[in-house]
Amino acid sequence: MKRVTGIGGIFFKARDPKALAEWYRVHLGVPVEAWGGAAFRWASPDNPSGTGTTAWNPFAADTGYFEPSQAPFMVNYRVADLHALLAALRSEGCNVVDKVDESEFGKFGWVIDPGGNKAELWEPPAGQ
């Protein structure tokens, strides 16, 4: 079974996410969109049509989205089969968050690593 197939996104806390995103847009050319982050599109041998995306997004410093982790960041990993991977992680004794979100954006699950960092696992929608 394939596990992680790539990085789906990098998320981090900021005192002023809008101002920080603007700094990255102006000084580093990050293509910040109206929703406050950026979507980098790419192709790969598994995705020759170039519909893959890696998100970059600053979050408010007081966001609860990274909880229970105290880390100021969270990495989103692309996975091939979220439900199978979550089952495997549980059977291996990993700290899997007991929640899965499914929407038009794909399937999302979470695991807490031994360092206390929350990792987001994302199975993109078909074709992405």
TrEMBL record:
Q: Where is the VOC domain?
A: 6-124
SUPFAM superfamilies (UniProt xref): Glyoxalase/Bleomycin resistance protein/Dihydroxybiphenyl dioxygenase (SSF54593)
Question: What's one Pfam family the UniProt record gives for this protein?
Answer: Glyoxalase_6
Which chain regions cross the lipid bilayer?
Answer: none
- Top-level lineage group: Bacteria
**What is the recorded name of this protein?**
VOC family protein
Originating organism: Rhodanobacter lycopersici
Q: What is the lineage of its organism?
A: Bacteria, Pseudomonadati, Pseudomonadota, Gammaproteobacteria, Lysobacterales
